[in-house]
Design brief:
Elements (H helix, E strand, L loop, with lengths): L2 H5 L24 H16 L10 E7 L24 E2 L5 E4 L4 E5 L5 E6 L9 E5 L2 E6 L2 E6 L9 E6 L2 E7 L2 E5 L3 E6 L5 E6 L5 E4 L5 E5 L2 E6 L2 E3 L5 E2 L3 E6 L2 E6 L3 E5 L5 E7 L21 E6 L2 E5 L6 E6 L4 E7 L9 E3 L5 E3 L2 E3 L25 E2 L4 E8 L2 E8 L5 E4 L12 E7 L2 E7 L4 E7 L5 E11 L7 E6 L5 E5 L2 E8 L2 E8 L14 E6 L2 E6 L4 E6 L5 E5 L15 E7 L2 E6 L4 E7 L1
Parallel strand pairs: 37-41
Antiparallel strand pairs: 1-48, 2-3, 3-4, 4-5, 6-7, 7-8, 8-9, 10-11, 11-12, 12-13, 14-15, 15-16, 16-17, 16-18, 19-20, 20-21, 21-22, 23-24, 24-25, 25-26, 27-28, 28-29, 30-31, 31-32, 32-33, 34-35, 35-36, 36-37, 38-39, 39-40, 40-41, 42-43, 43-44, 44-45, 46-47, 47-48
Length: 604
């Protein structure tokens, strides 16, 4: 079975599910048939078409990217632009915890529902971490320590311990965890904050506290061991397993880029080495990477062969350990879609979001597939699907202008341009057109200023085509998106209008604009819209009026509406501030921004 096919089983193999009454089914107690039945019931809830308002010609065929799906179970995240995850932990109730954006701590059920949110300190640095000491969560945020009881009411705030810390341990013994400053290592009581210095140690990069009381410190890629305040030199130090080394149930784990997790023995010998991800190591060959796991922040062991991990984005993933193959695989994604600068959609219903692909038939908790390395926030700008069904979109990656291109049926390419590329950050709208026998990709910022680039039929960057401007009258205040009509007319969404724009030399000049199609109060757009066009249809996400409308471009008449005008909702028949939209044939995918999910729509 391929990795793609295995990922589709995420609802069946997660190890535990919740019943409709919310009671948890423990892994050891859940017979396979019961798990299978529960998963099929959940799948039906999300795949069956929802009731449709108004014209009844656009139906919802489910949710992607939000493991809660709909209603009160929806996962919500705070501002994730510059804030990383902290490492997932599992409490005695078998709920999972991780930071979910600046100042937000989320608690999840294993089936993907959001159970509660808590307030934590804002700010971040690369060493932020979360650990569990008994029933007390210990958080290191921007060099300060905080605690929160797992029994604290939803909405509670973590309490400061009034201690500075450079790094903390994942492990704990007797209610105490290890905390390192730049000069020393302390054992700290989670319940009282009482601290005892046990080591003079400068600039530890990471610290771990073993169940036998040994302290381990990572420095310059080497793990040093200390027992009773003295360094062990017989066979130590030893090469570390990767970033944020963690001793968990007798095995060492370490993390790396490309969604890589490494597993080592208690004596830090490869066992077998790489168990998930695309980075090189003890495993010889290629393993698919997943951007949600990239640069993992920490693992939790939930039950037999079931783990959880979160990467820099703070979106936990459930992992299944295959002892025979000595590999892990991702079986469930717990989280949301906090932002969507661009969405790709091909003719077969594959959906590109951020740094990976979902299938049309995927469940709300399906992991991303065919992944690439994480892109800079918020990912790609608007995606264009080329005639050959390859995508192309501009973005930034590792501080360099980048073009993502290729078919969604295989791993797309991320082409970083090392020099002489005029692509700027902050691009939002993208369109592709022909100019004197060459394909040109144009991308604009919110003010309508843009740049053009030559590409080939597969979307590969070919060179610079120069600056481009959209000339509108009156000047548009904010553009959101672009689309092309089949006759070569450019469509732009700006200030609540669809603006038609024709070629004017190297630039484009407005020919007309419209924001209504009748005299009725509901027959007018709100002040901010997003557009996509394909197969003779113009799809409009009307953000302020909580709906998506499909128009026939030949007649200008609406042919279908989804959502209830001016009414937000969280069920499968409603939207809340819909924004970025992609369309291909009779299908469309819209970013339901306040609900932090992608909605799969079909025109029937």
């Amino acid at each position: 079975m391929t990795s793609t096919a295995r990922n589709r089983q995420c609802g069946v193999l997660a190890g535990c599910l919740a019943g409709h009454d919310g009671r948890m089914c423990h892994i050891s107690e859940a017979p396979t048939a019961l798990l299978l039945a529960a998963a099929l019931v959940m799948a039906a809830l999300f795949i069956v078409a929802a009731p449709v308002a108004a014209a009844e010609t656009i139906v919802c065929e489910g949710v992607l990217g939000n493991s809660g799906g709909q209603g009160a179970d929806l996962v919500r995240m705070g501002d994730v632009k510059a804030v990383r995850g902290m490492g997932v932990v599992c409490d005695r109730y078998q709920s999972l915890w991780d930071r979910a954006g600046d100042g937000v701590l989320n608690r999840y059920a294993l089936d993907g529902r959001l159970l509660a949110q808590y307030a934590i300190a804002k700010g971040t640095d690369g060493r932020d971490q979360l650990t569990l000491v008994g029933d007390v969560l210990v958080l290191q945020v921007a060099g300060k320590l905080y605690t929160l009881s797992i029994d604290a009411p939803a909405g509670s705030a973590a309490k400061p311990m009034k201690r500075d810390s450079a790094c903390i341990s994942f492990g704990s013994v007797g209610g105490r965890f290890a905390s390192a400053t730049k000069e020393a290592v302390f054992l700290v009581a989670a319940a009282t904050g009482e601290a005892q210095q046990v080591l003079d140690l400068k600039d530890a990069e990471a610290i771990e506290f073993g169940p036998d009381g040994a302290i381990y410190a990572l420095s310059k890629g080497q793990v040093r061991k200390f027992v009773g305040g003295k360094e062990v030199t017989d066979g130590w130090p030893r090469p570390g397993p990767g970033e944020r080394p963690q001793l968990l149930d007798g095995a060492w784990y370490g993390n790396a880029w490309h969604g890589t997790i490494r597993r080592f023995s208690a004596s830090l010998e490869p066992a077998p080495g790489v168990v998930l991800g695309g980075a090189s190591g003890s495993f010889i060959g290629h393993l698919d990477q997943n951007a949600d796991v990239s640069n993992g922040r920490g693992l939790a062991h939930i039950g037999p062969n079931l783990f959880a991990v979160s990467g820099i984005g703070g979106i936990p993933q459930l992992l299944e350990w295959d002892g025979q193959k000595q590999q892990m695989r991702i079986i469930r994604r717990l989280g949301a879609v906090p932002a969507a600068g661009g969405i790709g959609l091909d003719r077969d219903g594959r959906i590109w979001w951020f740094a990976g692909v979902w299938q049309w038939t995927d469940r709300p908790d399906a992991p991303l597939d065919q992944g690439v390395s994480p892109l800079e926030f918020p990912g790609v700008a608007q995606v264009v699907m080329l005639p050959g069904d390859a995508m192309v979109a501009p973005c930034w990656m590792w501080g360099k202008p980048t073009f993502v291109h290729g078919k969604l049926s295989t791993e797309v390419l991320t082409e970083r341009i090392e020099s002489a590329c005029a692509l700027k950050t902050g691009m939002i709208g993208t369109a592709v057109y022909a100019d004197r026998g060459k394909l040109v990709l144009m991308t604009i910022d919110r003010g309508g200023a843009g740049q053009a680039f030559f590409i080939d039929a597969a979307g590969k960057y070919q060179g610079e085509a120069g600056p481009v401007a959209l000339k509108t009258m009156p000047p548009a205040k904010e553009f959101t998106s672009l689309a092309m009509k089949e006759d070569g007319t450019l469509l732009a969404a700006a200030d609540g209008y669809v603006i038609e724009i024709a070629r004017d030399g190297k630039d484009w000049k407005e020919s007309r604009r419209w924001n209504s199609w009748g005299a009725g109060a509901a027959e007018k757009f709100g002040g901010r819209i997003f557009i996509a066009a394909d197969a003779g249809r113009l799809w409009v996400a009307d953000r302020e009026r909580q709906r998506v409308i499909a128009f026939d471009m030949a007649s200008g008449k609406p042919v279908g509406t989804f959502g209830t005008v001016d009414k937000k909702g969280t069920d499968l028949a409603a939207l809340a501030l819909p924004e970025t939209i992609a369309a291909r044939g009779q299908r469309a995918v819209v970013f339901d921004s306040e609900n932090q999910r992608l909605m799969k729509l079909r025109l029937k």
